[in-house]
Write a structure and sequence with these properties.
This protein is mainly beta. It is built from two helices and ten strands, in the order βββββββββαβα. Strands 1, 2, 3, 4, 5, 6, 7, 8, 9 and 10 form a ten-stranded antiparallel β-sheet that branches.
Length: 228
């Protein structure tokens, strides 16, 4: 059984400044579990050619349950039987920020830039064994090294990516598209810091760049084979 509630607001997109807002939550009283989240998305039409969309989306999971691969270094691992399936009860939080810029140069050329930062934090609380009937039973496995405040399964994950897409429609139904993609990610099993300090740590992660050129050409079958 669950209880779910959702509120959504959207203003007039024809205006220079518009706004989307969402607030929602789900409660599972029988298992003391909940999901909650909110999203806000301002939209600015700077001109007929320039458009900006910014959004932030926060989602939290309380006592969420999911599969765990046990770590042999953690106390209680030797108490598990071969074939045991271990689940963890965990608190999860995700934050996703997006910024989209769209510019139309002419009726044939346009450009879109999208920047996205995704942050996810997982803190494990307890561990269980999956029984044949689908229920969970407590186990001695702790997933936690002696003297450590966190478990070996706690995780802070960051991903930042930028996409720049330039489109030129050089003929009816035919496009030449240039795409540049950049992404940086960081995944750490360390005590979580504040959001902005965590964001600074992201820049020490590996970075990848890619460039793509795509050609789409429209062939008019009837015009090419006319008279054949």
């Amino acid at each position: 059984a669950r209880t779910y509630g959702r509120f959504f607001y959207s203003s007039d997109f024809r205006r220079t400044l518009a706004l989307n807002f969402r607030l929602e939550g789900t409660a599972y009283p029988e298992v003391d579990r909940s999901i909650y989240g909110w999203m806000i998305e301002p939209r600015v039409r700077v001109s007929d050619k320039f458009f900006i969309i910014a959004s932030t989306n926060h989602v939290g999971f309380s006592k969420d349950e999911g599969y765990v691969l046990p770590n042999p270094a953690a106390p209680g691992f030797d108490k598990l039987e071969p074939g045991d399936i271990v689940f963890g009860s965990r608190d999860r939080k995700t934050i996703e920020n997006n910024l989209t810029l769209r510019y139309i140069f002419s009726n044939r050329m346009s450009a879109v830039m999208r920047a996205r930062h995704f942050y996810s934090r997982v803190d494990y609380l307890d561990f269980f064994k999956l029984l044949p009937n689908g229920s969970l039973a407590e186990v001695e496995y702790t997933g936690q090294l002696d003297g450590e405040s966190r478990t070996l399964h706690d995780l802070n994950f960051h991903l930042f990516n930028v996409d720049l897409i330039y489109t030129w429609r050089f003929a009816p139904g035919s496009d030449l598209i240039f795409v540049w993609k950049n992404d940086i990610f960081s995944s750490r099993n360390e005590d979580a810091d504040t959001y902005f300090r965590e964001l600074r740590n992201l820049w020490s992660g590996p970075q990848r760049n890619s460039f793509t050129i795509k050609l789409v050409y429209y062939f008019d079958y009837q015009q090419i084979f006319r008279g054949i």
